[in-house]
């Protein structure tokens, strides 16, 4: 079966740094469940080959298991972790970075044969069952790891096939949108990127809407549709997730970390941190630090 072969390939070639010999491909391997970890799902295709993975975006929980794929269209702050993994049956997955320019090239090849782009602002994340054609292409891409001399010539061709399977598949509307430079999703993606890069700064939603060429109400509605959060809630997620990463390395500097991520009030930071992660910063940081030290 294709899924069995995918498991074997990932298990053999996964490295601690997730990289492999094929550009833009990441291989995931986890031998145990681990605490939910802040991360970013950018423009990426991810397939779970073994185990189960859970992630949270705002108040929504997503779960995907072996044979499911996820498409992310913008740089979203999520908390993710494998929920089923053991040394005998590790959690295994593969990720492929999706470049808008490559998607646009595929769209231009067959514009008359593609359905409409879909909603003006489709959701930023979606999970579906991996169709056989897409799974087959991903397996053939990873088979190239067995014959490294073929990677340079054949990997670009198979990646293009994967993009075609995505843009014509169940979640094609998401992928097609971020391949169009003037789509609503692309405008929201730029706003998301600005907030991510400037998360400690204050901003006015009215100014961001103006730069996106939208009314405030349309911008707010589109931003919510893509990220499942308002712009202010999105910024708060970024701040808290960045704080959690910093505290895992510096568990004793809560006041300093709160200032670095943009909070003027340490007490407000502690309240919002506990509401988000279920524990006060000091306890959560100590637990994460201890887990990393095991």
From TrEMBL:
InterPro entries: Homeodomain-like_sf, HTH_AraC, HTH_AraC-typ_CS, Tscrpt_reg_HTH_AraC_N. It comes from Acrocarpospora macrocephala. This is AraC family transcriptional regulator. Residues 270-294 are annotated as: Disordered. Keywords: DNA-binding, Transcription, Transcription regulation. Residues 189-287 form the HTH araC/xylS-type domain. The keyword Protease does not apply. One of its GO terms (molecular function) is sequence-specific DNA binding. PANTHER family: ARAC-FAMILY TRANSCRIPTIONAL REGULATOR (PTHR43436), TRANSCRIPTIONAL REGULATORY PROTEIN (PTHR43436:SF1).
